[in-house]
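Quarterly update, task 2.4: N-carbamoyl-L-aspartate-bound model.
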Amino acid sequence: MTNLVGKDILAADQFNMAELELILQTARQFDTISSAGGTLDLMRNMILATLFYEPSTRTRLSFESAILRLGGSVLSVAEAKTSSSAAKGETLYDTGKMIEGYAHVAVIRHPIVGSARELADGASIPVINGGDGAGQHPSQALLDLYTIQKEKGRLEELTVTLVGDLRYGRTVHSLAPLLQHFGTRFNFVAPSELAMPAEITAGLRAKGAEVTETSDLAAVIGQTDVLYVTRIQKERFADPAQYEALKGAYVVNNALLQQAKPDLTIMHPLPRVDEIAKEVDAYEGAAYFRQAANGVLVRMALLALVTGKI
Ligand code: NCD
């Protein structure tokens, strides 16, 4: 039987279809119980450690909310970069060895690609990657998948347009391989400097996915079922002038939406800067705040599954 007990959650491509279905189904179950006002006590006496070496609002708060809603507790280092032993030169491997004595599961966010794996190599408890630089952000991709299914009523037969910073945006690096399982048709919309990494696009095509790459959002909006907008990742640019030249490359506003399907769903991992105009918030298909709320349910599912509590 499929289960995730004891597993690290490091990258989206680690999941097979049965595991994806298990996570979505568990989140749905928690959704039903929470919506009915029920409570869950599955992780009583269990501790989640959160190690955030990079800023975060949603990922951190939703993981904390998730463990509290499951009856557990959270241990966290406030500003891990400056106030933890990392400032004294401790390796993540050693931090992993240590953290297993303090907690039952850990979430890490770090500016360097591969850092979650390094912590996981040291720790015998399950480690969840809450974002490693421009690498992966698998729990975000899972909540994105959950949101698409909830908003659209299905995951199959959809055209999904990913727009913005596809080069440095870790959320899209994780989401695209997950959607590939469901036969998604992709539009990747970015300035050429911020195109999706070639190995990801090639990997999707090798598995039979239909991928269109363009820099023209208006050209594809009319065929889009789900528009996934991302922020230009200022903190990843080596050259601030390049960021200045590319910021504001895309703005989703009412004028653009006139060309869209009436049932278009608009998503964004948040935080947004100016890539979705505020006027769009009133649009029925604007799902980004519902998407953020879904994060708690999906993270509850992940925590309960990797600790074997469900
Ligand atoms: C994203 C991230 O940190 O990668 N935020 C999030 O987790 N919701 C997206 C971003 O910062 O642009």
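Highlight for this quarter: The radius of gyration is 19 Å.
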